[in-house]
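Lab notes, practical 5.
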Amino acid sequence: FTFPVLRTGRLNELLHHLNVGAKKGKASLFFKKNKWFFAITVKIEVENSTNKNVMGIDIGLRQLAVASVSSASGKELNRSFYNGKEVGFIRKKYRSTRRKLGKLKLPKLIKRLSNKEQRWMTNKNHEISRQLINLAVQEQVGVLVMESLKNIRKAAYSLNRSDRSIHSWAFFELQNFIEYKAKLAGIEVVYVDPKYTSQQCSKCGIVCKKQRNKNNYSC
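Output from the prediction step:
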């Protein structure tokens, strides 16, 4: 049988990869939420970057992402912040609405609202990760360094209520989006132990928690 296909941005991207030599992999057709979807995997050959600049990305709660680009000699070339205030505000609105729907005993609407929130969060993760990789390409980055996020959710309990409202943000999803987009651009991705990184001076290496005040560190 035949059916019309909606030409989305993802389809255009797929066709672009196929036109430049990507190899088709597995494909599947499935029905979800009264719509048909066609999924296909492709194998893309990526040329690894030879650039020497390094980008470090710190993913957290108060700042969803902070990116710092340095040269091979250690000189900082660029720094970019992605604040978590908007996410915290949106999360509070969704949480408040869910409470009201809970009192009215409307579980179907609660589930529908949660799905809508998740889609919004995923789109936000795509937006931030794309901006970060565009910055990396612009600044001729060859290696991208990120912290392991195994204990990031535990950190939320040490923050105030407004910060805790975004502790369920999809941190790992954001990191995964950054990683696969970096690899598509030929940028190597490295993970490091996050222990004491926010308390350590980048110049002399001394670790002192008292010398950090929110986003400012004075050695």
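Observations recorded by the TA: The chain is about 40% helix and 25% strand. Residues 107-138 form the longest helix (32 residues).
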